Amino acid sequence: MEQKGTDKLKFKQVDKLSWVSLGKEQEKSVVSEEKVNASVFLDPKKYLLYDVYKAEERIANIILRFNKDGSVFLLDFGILEEKLGQGYGIMMISQLSELLSKNGVTRLIATSNKGALNFYKKVGFDIVKEERFEQDGKRYREFDLEKTL
Q1: Which tens digit of pLDDT belongs to each residue from 71-82?
Q2: Burial (CB count within 10 angstroms: exposed 0-12, middle 13-18, buried 19+), residue 52
Q3: Of the candidates 56, 60, 61, 34, which has an alpha carbon nearest to the alpha carbon of residue 45?
Q4: DSSP for the chain, written as a single string
Q5: Considering the entire predicted model, what is its pTM?
Q6: Which member of 13, 26, 130, 135 has the lowest number of beta carbons within 10 Å of its beta carbon?
């Protein structure tokens, strides 16, 4: 699944990516299935990794999991720190939704904390479940989200 266009982002599937998270780059790579069973890592049979480009510049990356029910779970995505606030997140989710829909996917699922909730609402996700929990003496709220494509 690859998308190209002059004013659009390009999604390039990769088997190893330099992960962008909160502006910091870390290495993540796909490992063999036996290592997947031994540790929590990305199984290449269940997950797709994409680097996201604007023109020829990598600006973000994304990890997707295809579920048995035909939905896709947006496991994680990150945008380079210097590209934050420029609308790339909105463009990425919009164009990803369009790509998935063209390939027969009807639902995009995500999980969010309170800090990112407004972003997900802005790009068309609805809250399907809210969970409150306490960890290490701190209170948290987590939201299960869904977007119909």
Answers
A1: 999 988 888 888
A2: buried
A3: 34
A4: -----SSSEEEEEESEEEEEETTEEEEEE---HHHHHHSS---TTTEEEEEEEETTEEEEEEEEEE-TTS-EEEEEEEE-GGGTTSSHHHHHHHHHHHHHHHTT--EEEEEEEHHHHHHHHHTT-EEEEEEEEEETTEEEEEEEEEEE-
A5: 0.75
A6: 135
Q: Of the candidates 60, 24, 63, which has an alpha carbon nearest to the alpha carbon of residue 40?
A: 63
* Encoded amino acid at 107, one letter: R
149 close to 105: Cβ distance less than 8 angstroms = yes
Domain boundaries in the chain?
A: 9-148
Per-residue pLDDT tens over the stretch 23-69: 344 444 333 333 333 223 556 667 788 888 898 888 888 888 888 89
For 77, 117, 122, the CA distances from 22, given in Å and listed in that order, are 10, 16, 20
More confident residue, 75 or 107: 107
Q: What is the pLDDT of residue 100?
A: 92
